[in-house]
Write a structure and sequence with these properties.
The chain has 226 residues and is an alpha/beta fold. The chain folds into two domains: 127 residues, Response regulator (Rossmann fold), CATH 3.40.50.2300; 57 residues, no CATH class. Helices cover 58% and strands 12% of the residues. It contains eight helices and five strands. It has a five-stranded parallel beta sheet, with helices on both faces. Helix 3 links the parallel strand 3 and strand 4. Helix 2 packs parallel to helix 3, helix 5 packs antiparallel against helix 6 and helix 7 packs antiparallel against helix 8. The longest helix has 46 residues. The protein starts with 11 loop residues before the first strand and ends in a 6-residue tail after the last helix.
């Protein structure tokens, strides 16, 4: 009898960050008992957590709230800027309502009080897994819409550039295109020419400053060759 092939599930990738070695070890042991979960990195402070999250892009980060160099909430703020689709469970030795509200306001999904049980950890991981999946689905939908919008604007820009339109509609289309840091140089040049024709000197100055800043950023990242 032929069996139906079931593709393997992707394991949930987790980063642990705590300045107490025993807590790091115990948390890792507890996570090892949860199916389809793997620990991809362990940090002993907030700075390490951010660096390792940037490198490994975990699905979930478990962060102790009180860590040297950088606390858990500050670390998650930085991680969320790098990987907005990463979920977070904050770990604390005490339950503080103000801290809890702050944590939730920056996107933390779960809050565990030490010492927590395997069951409590598994429930928290399951909840955050679902929210991460929902977040990634929304991000994918937004990216798809952005790509479609970008394609439509590019088509319009090509037509407007050929006919050398400088009216309000053309200016608006090119302004939307150049909001993308990776936009083509020709759209920047075309928008600059529109500003010159329309004598929009203030907007031209802002555009020049934007181009200069992007050039500096590319140079820092090694993506610009003078």
């Amino acid at each position: 009898m032929q069996q139906t092939y079931v593709p393997p599930k992707n394991k949930l990738r987790i980063l642990i960050a705590d300045d107490v070695q025993e807590t790091r070890r115990n948390t890792r042991l507890m996570l090892a008992t949860i199916d389809d979960v793997e620990v991809v990195a362990i940090a002993s402070n907030g700075i390490q957590a951010v660096q390792l999250a940037k490198e490994h892009h975990p699905d979930i980060v478990l962060l102790d709230i009180n860590m040297p160099e950088l606390d858990g909430l500050s670390a998650f703020r930085r991680i969320a800027q790098i990987h907005p689709d990463t979920g977070c469970i904050i770990i604390s030795a005490e339950k503080d309502t103000t801290t809890l509200r702050t944590a939730m306001s920056i996107g933390v999904q779960e809050y565990l009080i030490k010492p927590f049980t395997i069951d409590e950890l598994e429930v928290a991981v399951t909840r955050v897994r679902e929210r991460v999946q929902q977040t990634r689905k929304k991000i994918a939908q937004m990216e798809s819409l952005n790509r479609k919008n970008e394609a439509y604007l590019t088509q319009l820009a090509g037509e407007y550039a050929k006919t050398r339109r400088t009216d309000d509609k053309a200016m608006q289309v090119f302004e939307q295109l150049v909001e993308n840091p990776q936009c083509e140089a020709r759209w920047l040049q075309t928008l600059a020419m529109i500003y010159i024709v329309r004598q929009q000197w203030g907007r031209l100055k802002i555009l020049a400053e934007t181009v200069e800043q992007r050039t500096k950023n590319q140079s820092k990242q090694g993506g610009f060759v003078a």
